[in-house]
Amino acid sequence: MTARTDAVIAGIDRLKLDFLAYLPSSSIAPIIEHFRVRSGLAGSPVAFPISREEEGVGIVGGIALAGRRGAMLIQDNGFGNSLTALTTFAIAYNVPLLVLANTRGGLGEYNSMIHSFSGRVPAMLDVARIPAFLVDRRNSRDDWSGTVAEAYRHAEMTHRPVVVLMDFWAPEPAAGI
Amino acid sequence: MKRIEALEAILPAIEVVPVVVTCAATTRELAALADRPNYLYLLDSMGLAVSVATGLALALGNEPIERVIAIEGDGSLFMNLNALATLGFLAPEKLIVVLLDNGVYGSTADVPTYAGKLNLADMARSVGAVVAVASDREAVVAALDRAFAEPGPHFLHVRIEPGNATCPLFLADPVALKVRFETWLRARLGR
Asked: How close, in Å, is residue A88 to chain B by CA atoms?
């Protein structure tokens, strides 16, 4: 667990979510594990896996339509799988939806292919008119948790899907923020 | 039985429960039969009806809402077959999927779907859904009655013939549909 994963957990805790849908990625695995083992306990959301980001947009959107609080925790290359659902459902129907996505393809990326998609995610979200807020090594712990918490409010107030892009890379030997 | 006849058969049962409706001809036909505020039509999100209904059924699990209905087509479900796996995994007891299976993409020139070879009822059974199969009006009504009486998730596989009824285009604003649906649901929940 790093200071940043802790900060994301703190940010999610502030949201008082009812449900948290997730798809794994190694960067966010500690966050998923934190909520998975506490799923449904007092003060913790019901955390459940989804098989694809597209259906996550539908499920978490349905939760929002029912007046409950939900969010989705994914890796950013999942926007490729979910763009149609985001645009034809969440955007078209004004469904507030918080998507927390760790980034790939930037500094420290070992996968020689993934940058071809993930590197374009901010531009793609911009074209799709989905607000995205980036946190990275330059942000404080409070920035990380505060951005997560405020992004949900932003989604509620604007009646739109909102994305927080979380870049977990840190230069060696720094371990925390 | 044509799609519009199957929809007509389920109309009485879906009068006061949330209903998520798949796009195109299904939406047009249901809206032509009876356009109600508890219907959330997904005008262009092919394959998403079961997912949205799953979210609603999860969120409404402890609320005084009897059932949540997804009206889906075979072509649309094959576009998001993951929804079936997740339905089985999460197993929301209040969810009823009414699958209208005509074996073709009915809104796009009747091009055949996988349903000619693959059985969606078997797939639903394999993920743990309570499955019923119906191909006439009486069987549809009886199966839906049972689905309201017993915990689900339910998967009602309705075999229908290809062919669309002649209905006007459904040109509602999606935001207006969403607000109408939310307003109905809040009132139903007494909020």
From this structure: 6
Domain count, chain A: 1
Neighbouring C-beta atoms of residue A75, cutoff 10 Å: 20
- Mean pLDDT calculated for residue range B8-34: 97
Cross-chain Cβ contact A84/B45 below 8 Å = yes
pLDDT tens-digit profile of B121-168? 999 999 999 999 999 999 999 999 999 999 999 999 999 999 999 999
Whole-angstrom distance, CA of residue B117 vs CA of residue B159: 14
H-helix or E-strand spanning residue A14: helix A3-15
The arrangement of secondary structure in B3-189, i.e. its CATH architecture, is 3-Layer(aba) Sandwich (3.40)
Domain housing A31? 3-166
Distance, CA of B154 to CA of B116 (rounded, Å): 22
The Cα–Cα gap between B142 and A90 comes to 35
A19, A84, A95 ranked by CB distance to B58: nearest: A19
The complex's ipTM works out to 0.97
Interface residue B88 vs chain A (CB under 8 A) = no
The answer to whether residues A21 and A70 touch, using CB atoms and an 8 Å cutoff, is yes
